Amino acid sequence: MNPLRKRRLILISALVLGVGAATALALTALNENVNHFYSPSEVAAGKIAHGRTFRLGGVVLEGSPRREESTLKAHFVVTDRFANLPVEFEGILPDLFREGQSVIAVGMLNASGVFAAEEVLAKHDENYMPAEVKEAIDKGKARREAGAPEGAQP
Amino acid sequence: MMPELGQIALILALLLAIVQATVPLIGAHWRQPALMAVARPAAYGQFVFVLFAYGILTEAFVAQDFSIAYVAQNSNLALPWHYRFSAVWGAHEGSLLLWVLILSGWTVALAALSSRLPERFMARALAVLGIISIGFLAFTVLTSNPFERHVPPLADGNDLNPLLQDFGLIVHPPMLYMGYVGFAVAFAFAVAALIEGRVDRQWVRWSRPWTNVAWAFLTIGIALGSWWAYYELGWGGWWFWDPVENASFMPWLVGAALIHSQAVTEKRGTFAAWTLLLAICAFSLSLLGTFLVRSGVLTSVHAFASDPTRGIFILVFLVIVTGGALTLYAIRAPKLAAAPPVSLYSRESLLLLNNILLVTACAMVLIGTLYPLVAEALGWGKISVGPPYFGLMFFVLMAPLVWLIPFGPLTRWKGDSLPAVFLSLRTALALAALAAALVWIVERELPLKAVIGVCAGIWVIFGTLAFLLRRMRNAAPGRMLTAEMVGMSLAHIGVGIFVVGVVVTESLNVERDVRMQAGDMVEVAGYQVTLREVVRQDGPNFIADEGVFEIRQDGELMSTQHPQKRRYLRGQVMTEAALDAGFFADFYIAMGEPIGTGGAWAIRLYYKPMIRWVWLGALLMMAGGLVSATERRLRQTIVEREVVQSAPEQMPDALPERA
C-alpha cells in the first residue's frame, strides 16, 4: 500500500469509528434525557406509568392556585378544558404564572395521582402559547364539544 | 405620511438588492466591467434606503406615533425616552429591520474596503450578499411590515415588554445580529470562490478578520444574553440549553472552527474545501437560528409570538440559500486539490482535531435541538431533550479540546515532535496541578471532577502564557508578538478562565428557596441574610414591592440589597433580582411571591461562586477575536496571485526553529 492510501485508510477508519462512537453516545444520552409531553386528558387516560418524569402542559385552571401559609408549597390544577390534573410544586413560581395562562410543568405523578412538579415554566411573552399546549387545549375543546367519553383518544 | 415613506424606502432598497444580486453576477460571467461595477453603488444605495426606513421607525418611537401598529404595541406614553430607541428592536418586525440594516452595513463595509481585491471575485461576493438581502427585505416587506398603520390611531400604546426595558437586553440583539450577519461575509466569499472554482489564498487571508470580528460579536452577544438571563429572569442560571440559546450557540461553534480552519488554509493552503464548507455552515446555522426563533416551531421560553407564514418564508429561504450553496459545493469542491501530506503530529493535525471536536459538538447540539421536531414528525409523540444530554455531550467533546489547546500554538506546521512540545509545557502543567491542589486545599468541598476541571482551565492559561514567553524569548525583535498571536492568546486564556468559572460555579453554587418575613434570618453558604422589611417603591411605569435585605458574615454587615417585584402598567409582573456581585462570588436575592396575608414572601437566595468568570472568559474571547482582526499581515494584498491548488510554496513559519 502506498503511503497516501495508507494515510487515507487510517483517516477513514478513524472517521468511521469516531462518527459511530459519537452517534452511539448521542443516542444513548438522548434516550435517557428525553421527556415526553402529555396533556391532562392523556394522563387521565392512564397513558403514564407512575415514577416516570414527563412534561405536563395545559392552562392553569381559574381559581385553582393556592399557596400553603407556612411552607413554599403551591397547589394548582392544570387543565386542557377537558380533563383536569392537580399539581403540587414546592418553590417559586415564574412571574408569568397566572390563572388562565399556559404553563408547562416537569415532574412525575405521585402515589395519590397528583403531579409533583420539579419545575414550572411559563413564557416571556403573554401572547405566546407553546404549540403543544395549544394543541392539547384545542383537542380538549373539540372533545368536550363532541361529548366524547373521558380519556378517549383519536 | 412618514411611515409610508419608510415603507417605500424599504421597497426601493429591495429593488436595489435585486439589482445588486443579479447585474454583477451577469457582469462577472461575461466579464463586463461596467456591469460588475454596479455592485458597489447598488449596495451603498440600498444601505441609504434601509437606514432611512430605520430612522423613520426610530423617529416614530421617539415621537410616539401610535398610529403605527408596531409602535403602539411596543411603547406607551410612560416609556422613558432612552428605551424608545431600543424599543425599535423590541419585537419581531423592528428587530428584523435591524437585522436588514446590519446586513446592509456589513455589505457597505465590505464594498468600501475591498477595492484591492479582484473585481470579478468581489462582484460575485457582493451579489451573494445581495441575494441574502433580497430574502430578508422581501420577508420584511411581505410578512412583517413595521410601518403598518393602526386604524384608528391610538391615544396611548400598549407597552414595551418589561423584560426588554433593561440594558442587557438592549445591547444583546444588535450584538447577536452583528455576529449572525457577519458570517454572511465569509459565506459570500465561499460561494464566490465556488462559482469561480478555485480557492485563492489572497481572499482567504483577507476574509479572516471579517470572520474573527463576526465571531467576536456573536461571542459578546451570547454572553450578554446569558448575563441578562442570569440577573433579569430571576432563575439565577447562566445557561439553560434552551432551543433559542442553542440556535445562537451552533453558529458560534462552527464559527470557532472556521476561524481555525481559515488560519490553516491561509497559511498552509490546505483544508481549502473544508474551510468553504464551514463558511457555508456557519451562516446557514445563523439562518436556521433565525428560523427556529421566529417560526415558533420549537417550544422555548424565548420564542417570539409568531405566525406560521413567517416560519415558512424563512424555511424556504433557508432551503434556497443553504441548499444552493451546498449544491454548488458538491459540484465544485471535488475539483479543489487534496492536501499535501503532513506528519501525524503537526499543527495541521491539531487544528483538524479542533475542527472535528467543535463541529461534532455543534452536530450534537443540533441533534438535541431538532430531535423533538423529528420525533413529532415521525409520530413518536411530543418530547423534549433535557439539559443533562447537552451537559454530557459537552463534557465528552470539550474536555479533550480544552486539554489540547496549549499544544496548538507551540506545535510547528507540517510536523513536530510531541515530546519536545510537551517538554516546553511541563512547567505550565506542573503549575496548573499545583494551582488546582491549592484550590482544593482552600475549598475542600470541591469534588474531584471539579478539581480536574479547574486544573484544565489553569493549564490552558499557563500553557498559553508559556507560548507567549517563548515567543518573547526566541523571536526576532519587532516580530515578537503579532496582533494575531496576542488575539489568539487572549481568546485561549479566555477559554481557560471560562472553564474555571463554569466548573466552580456549577459544583459549588447554593440555591435556596425560602419563606421569609420581616425580621427572619437565613444562613446561606456561611452568610447570614436578614429580611428587614418589604416596602412599596414606584417607578415611572411600574409599581413594586421592594425587600430590604442585609447580608452579614460573622455578624459584620457586608451589604444591603433591594430586590423588587414589579408590576408594570401593561399588567406584566417582573422580578428585579438584587445582586451583590463580586469577583469571586455573587450573592443573588430575588423576590418570589407573597405567601398568605401575614407579609411573608417566598424568597430565592443564591450563592454563585466565580460566576463572573464565565462572562469574563467570554469577554476575553471577544477581545481576542477583535485584536487578531487588526493583524496587519491579513490586510496586505499580495501582488502575485497565489492559488491554493498550485503547490503551496514554503510559507514562513509562525514559530522560530526550536533552538
| Shape estimate of chain B | globular
Largest sheet of chain A, if any? 5 strands, mixed, barrel
Overall pLDDT metric of chain B: 86
Distance between the termini of chain A: 62 Å
Low-confidence stretches of chain A: 148-154
**Through-space gap between termini of chain B:** 74 Å
Elements of chain A, N to C (H/E) = HEHEEEEEEH
Q: How would you name the oligomeric state of the polypeptide chains in this document?
A: heterodimer
Explain this structure:
- Chain A has helices spanning 3-32, 40-44, 131-146, and strands at residues 34-38, 54-60, 66-67, 73-79, 84-90, 102-109, 115-121.
- With 154 residues, chain A is of the alpha+beta class.
- In chain A, strands 2-4-5-7-6 form a 5-stranded mixed β-barrel.
- The radius of gyration of chain A is 22 Å and the shape is elongated.
- With 659 residues, chain B is of the alpha+beta class.
- Helices cover 61% and strands 12% of the residues of chain B.
- Chain B contains 19 helices and 11 strands.
- Chain B has helices at residues 2-30, 33-36, 39-62, 69-74, 81-86, 92-113, 119-143, 167-196, 201-232, 243-268, 272-295, 308-332, 347-377, 387-404, 407-410, 418-442, 448-474, 483-508, 612-629; strands at 383-385, 510-516, 521-524, 527-538, 542-553, 556-561, 564-568, 573-576, 578-580, 585-595, 600-609.
- In chain B, strands 3, 4, 5, 6, 7 and 8 form a 6-stranded antiparallel beta sheet that branches.
- The longest helix of chain B has 32 residues, at 201-232.
- Chain B is globular, with a radius of gyration of 27 Å.
- Classes of the chains: A alpha+beta (154), B alpha+beta (659).
- The A-B interface holds A 3-4, 7, 18, 22, 25-26, 29-30, 32-38, 55, 67-72, 90-96, 104, 121, 123-128, 130-132 and B 161, 163, 234, 296-297, 299, 301-306, 341, 356, 360, 363-364, 367-368, 371, 381-389, 392-393, 396, 513-515, 571-575, 590, 592-593, 595-596, 598, 602, 604.
